[in-house]
Amino acid sequence: MxxxxxxxxxxxxxxxxxxxxxxxxxxFVCKVYTACTEAGVDYMEIGYLSSETAFSRDEVGPxxxxxxxxxxxxxxxxxxxxxxxxxxxxxxxxYHDIPHKSESALDMIRVACYAHQTDAAIDLAHHCIDKxxxxxxNLMAVSTVGLRELDxxxxxxxxxxxxxxxxxDSFGAFYSExxxxxxxxxxxxxxxxxxxxxxxxxxxxxxxxxxSAIISGINYLDASLYGIGxxxxxxxxxxxxxxxxxxxxxVRPLIEAIEAEILPWQEKIDWGYYIPYMVTGVxxxxxxxxxxxxxxxxxxxxxxxxxQMTNSTELE
Amino acid sequence: MxxxxxxxxxxxxxxxxxxxxxxxxxxFVCKVYTACTEAGVDYMEIGYLSSETAFSRDEVGPxxxxxxxxxxxxxxxxxxxxxxxxxxxxxxxxYHDIPHKSESALDMIRVACYAHQTDAAIDLAHHCIDKxxxxxxNLMAVSTVGLRELDxxxxxxxxxxxxxxxxxDSFGAFYSExxxxxxxxxxxxxxxxxxxxxxxxxxxxxxxxxxSAIISGINYLDASLYGIGxxxxxxxxxxxxxxxxxxxxxVRPLIEAIEAEILPWQEKIDWGYYIPYMVTGVxxxxxxxxxxxxxxxxxxxxxxxxxQMTNSTELE
Lengths: 316, 316
Fold this sequence. Notes:
The structure is a homodimer of 316-residue chains. The first copy, chain A, is an alpha/beta fold. Chain A folds into 2 domains: 7-266, TIM Barrel (Alpha-Beta Barrel); 275-310, no CATH class. Helices cover 39% and strands 14% of the residues of chain A. Chain A has helices at residues 12-16, 26-39, 68-75, 118-130, 147-159, 176-189, 206-215, 237-243, 252-266, 275-282, 288-295, 302-310; strands at residues 7-10, 43-48, 83-89, 108-113, 134-139, 164-169, 194-199, 220-223. The first copy, chain A, has an 8-stranded parallel beta barrel, surrounded by 5 helices. In chain A, helix 4 links the parallel strand 4 and strand 5. The longest helix of chain A is centred in the last third of the chain and has 15 residues, at 252-266. Chain A is globular and about 55 Å long. The relative contact order of chain A is 0.13. The A-B interface holds A 175-177, 201, 203-209, 211-212, 215, 226, 236, 238-239, 242-243, 250-252, 255-256, 258-259, 263, 272-273, 275, 278-279, 282, 300-303, 306-307, 310, 312, 315-316 and B 175-177, 201, 203-209, 211-212, 215, 226, 236, 238-239, 242-243, 250-252, 255-256, 258-259, 263, 272-273, 275, 278-279, 282, 300-303, 306-307, 310, 312, 315-316.
């Protein structure tokens, strides 16, 4: 599928960091940066933009903050050929802690919010626009949002200056038909805006649903190396790049980065397709219970987890 | 998706056996049998039907032969509530070694063939029909078959008495659009016949492509527990059953069987999404090179495998 409007956003460090509190060393982040640059990926999301007062550096790594000095250490002084993005959560970043674009290596700030936070998200995004950034709003967990509430959020977003709005399948609950329907709704309710997609892989559908999104006209595509990300992880970047026919994309640098930096992390953290994540996905629930189960000493007791989540009824 | 015509075929033992020469112990096969029965799965494919002269029992386990005594040991004397299937490869089974249906616990024989073997496959399938079995023909590796050759094979199949013909994505190379197109072609060229789908998961699309097949009107659906199968494996049965809305299906017995018998095998054999399988899938090639790489001591040297397969050109 070759469509020049398509932009690919790598979320390896940002979403992968949800599994290890962003404790990636510089070699990891440098490799992702170099690989994505060489592969022709459009954006690399290097972490979350948070105020230093919101979290302790004793607990979380540098990519929870995206301080300018940390970013500069990764990208060096050479020409930056890939755009950098950071995600901002409502309430975790003070406006005065956001530098002006002219003083930052970041190009884009993506504001993540739940539907009831849409107004606050628009306000934060407008602030970022006024400081010179590209912005998106990523409306999370849309699989749990009521129809009326969603329409209201989309109507608010349509009146905003935010140019890009994301469909986010936080729980990995959607089938391709859901993506088609939501893409249509977002495009109808948000005339003139660009739509993005961020999928989770609980049902092994993150890549397939991203393809469905492309077919439905969605142009901003999130993915991560080998799918690294929270719980079941994301759409694997290497699959997406191999699928897209734009000749600017290269797969090999991604394979190389997977070998060098991602596979070693697989020994330490369990993202990907595991039964507990499958169960929360099918039940359209937050993966936190599955993550807790995976971190416990009964990781492979998957029937127990199933029973706990369903009380032996719903899915039985 | 509730459509009474849909039949689900578990291939855990038969396709999974391609990874361990069918060396599953009886406890494994019993558990798959019980779980599939309790889950409401329509067929369990218990192995290959081969002549004892074609392979040595010193090298391959009992499920390469599906001898009546072996099957009876698994199913016991109780009422059999699930249909049993065996796959037959052209040239590996002598006609006189196929028992009459009245002397066999098998209900269905599925003949696997490449396009150039279609005539031989029809002949074998007719022989099985005449002995009282349900039959299918599974046309393998259709992603590599030329248009004219495929049309000829389908025209031959349309004239046969074989009621069910499978689209088989042996290499895991297809996207959902390919499945849509092939489903349409098979249905046009095979009026009155039922179409089946067997997907491989090289690009994490086996489940998604099976859903596409359902939407396109395909009714015989292959899957396996946790996707166990050759190379990247198959469509995960637990995902498919959770997706299908027919109330006869239950997920829990499948989760239980995965915990008891499948997860332990994951320590010993590497099916699933790995970069070497992804590479052969994207390149539309047989997984044998990837399997050899995965079995070597350089399993994680995925860049080397990529270079070897592409000569640093095709996918670069």
